[in-house]
């Protein structure tokens, strides 16, 4: 089995992403919801019909595509019309089976219309640029966390082929969802992100940086959105990979 699929390596990657995601949510929560930045056609013609966040995300991805970001198996773009890399090709070790799983449409919709109202105060403070910059980073980090479910699923499959092969052969999505679910591990993740948020948020208690994020809210974001979307990726990947 590839070292990328070892439980220690996967756990290390996901724990590092936790800290990045928590800090990003803390940063975004200091601004109002600013829902105008998510509405297509809300602002200027220069946005070419996209929302401000969508425009900035697209521009970011076009730049990153040129330097090979999306040739890495753990990166998934939100947009399909990206330029080819200008850097020479590089061989990445890819322990995954060929697949087309990409649920970034769900990730973006959940973030913009559910997570943002959940963590930010209602209203518009006109901090559109700062909010959008935070959003682009958060969306990219959430995408990586969610789609890392492919590595988790491949590791589980190779470790328990006798259990997973019949379910994959039958195309039984519900049974696969049950098989990949480990409630004890999920509770550990939820408790860990809560503890981290308590620690990090305390650093802002004496400052005047605006709205403070509730550690319970970050725990709930993982419970309601991040973990379920990650598990959806796992199931879709297993169904596509075959036996």
Q: What would you note in describing this structure?
A:
- The chain has 243 residues and is mainly alpha-helical.
- It has a single domain, classed as Orthogonal Bundle (Chorismate Mutase, subunit A).
- The protein is built from nine helices and no strands.
- Helix 1 (7-29) packs across helix 8, helix 2 (52-66) crosses helix 4 and helix 8 (183-202) packs antiparallel against helix 9 (215-241).
- The longest helix has 27 residues, at 215-241.
- The chain is globular.
- 31% of the residues are buried.
Q: What's this model, at a glance?
A:
By secondary structure, the protein is mainly α. Helix content is 62%, strand content 0%. The radius of gyration is 19 Å and the shape is globular.
Count of runs of 4 or more consecutive helical residues: 9
> Which whole number gives the mean pLDDT?
95
Q: What level of helicity do the residues show?
A: 55-70%
- Rg for CA atoms: 19 Å
Quote the CATH topology.
Chorismate Mutase, subunit A
Q: Give the termini distance in whole angstroms.
A: 16 Å
Number of domains: 1
Uncertain spans = none
**The top level CATH class name:** Mainly Alpha
CATH architecture: Orthogonal Bundle
Q: How many strands in all?
A: 0
- Outline: globular
Helix/strand class: mainly alpha
